[in-house]
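Hi there,

I know you've been waiting on this one. I reran it after we fixed the sequence typo, so this is the corrected version. Both the input and the resulting structure follow.
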Amino acid sequence: MWLAALWWGSLSALGLWVVPTLFAQLPTKALAGNAAAALFSVQSMVSAVLGAGLLLASRADATRWHGIQARDARGFVLAGMLLALLLEFAVAPRITARVDLPLWHGLGTAMLLLQWGCAAVVFWKLARPERATQIQD
């Protein structure tokens, strides 16, 4: 559960606090954008590593991951990891190159929000193991 909390928390902090602060405090939007791009790149790798950790934990800790809700969380972990990797290797290079910037920035924002949603669902499902056992009874 702690990996899920860290994943959701890091996405929340970056998107809701750190990046808006960069744009508010740095002298130019270009400077803030470059700093944000570097942070989002790190976040993509953090998301991939935490997602892999969650998948490994799901295999190692069967008692925590049994039940319908927890098993369903695996799909959200995979979706979140896929979104993170697509953002890093497909969308971010186009944003950085400023190719069709409004389109790719909008798509990247939507994908980041979807990834945040995946992390939130995983965290919620793993934080409520009693519901998973109630479903099986």
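Quick highlight: DSSP finds six helices and no strands in the chain.

Best,
R. S.
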